[in-house]
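Students often ask what a holo structure prediction actually looks like on paper. The answer is less mysterious than it sounds. You provide the chain, you provide the ligand, and the output is a string of discrete structure tokens encoding the 3D arrangement of the protein together with glutamic acid.
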Amino acid sequence: MNYQSILAEIQNEIKPLFKEGKVANYIPALQKANPNDFAMSIVTIDGNEYHIGCSDKNFSIQSISKVFTFTLALENYSKELYKKVGHEPSGDPFNSLVQLEYENGIPRNPFINAGAIVTTDSLISKYKDDTFSQVLKFIKKTSNNNTINFDNEIFKSELEHGYRNLSLINLMKSFKNIDNDTKKVIETYFQQCSIMMNTKQLAHSMLFLANHGRQPITNEIIINEAKAKRINSLMLTCGHYDASGDFAYKVGLPGKSGVGGGIVAVVPKKMALCVYSPKLNKQGNSLIGTKALELFTTKTGLSIF
Ligand code: GLU
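The corresponding structure tokens follow.
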């Protein structure tokens, strides 16, 4: 299949959609993104790469970081982790407080904000003050790239305006589902969200999930096969908040979005993809990114179904 020309077709077909959607503004620093940016990357497990658009431009990975922290926490705690966070879709917005109150502070899954905050808390219990550097080290390992870092301005901006996330963590602390100091946990969570990567690096970073848990370029085992299956399953059912069903319906691949405008997706046993376009739909997922991935699976037949 000629992936490079498929990328060119996609870039052409998404053009009319640039007038739709809205760049995230509830974290003021995110609003600086260029609404007209578009990039898409495909990296196959046998080492071929195809890119289009601004695939070298770094953007804030935001909730895509939840895949990395969940993987690291699952590796450390296995099933024990599910005492603190579930694995069911929430059907609610990414930052919702409602469900958390009547479900006694146990978030539905690790890919909504509350669930990711609990996951980060579990990592702090393990790595203490070294948690963020361990997360960064882990991302460098999965992406086979040593240059990755975070953006201090985005981190500070989220720290200053993260009222809802502060409510979530305090509510969970009241239910005794946060073990560490709330300030430490929320800062680490915001820091992981402000990590900057481009579509090339993010596609590389997801290859282990397309390859039963082994990074195919370095041949390093990141996580065992059974756990890689579970991470992919959760990305399929919970990767896009209250639009997870819609994403599975239209795209048919495990994926995870972030409000920075990135979406990663996995074609099991074949490849990982990443698309970037910062204008979001109502549920906080990249509008053009979702469409581009839908076009990709329609044109190639490479969905999991
Ligand atoms: N840092 C963002 C927040 O907590 C992440 C949300 C997202 O990317 O969907 O609001």
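Residues 3-298 form a domain with the Beta-lactamase fold (CATH 3.40.710.10).
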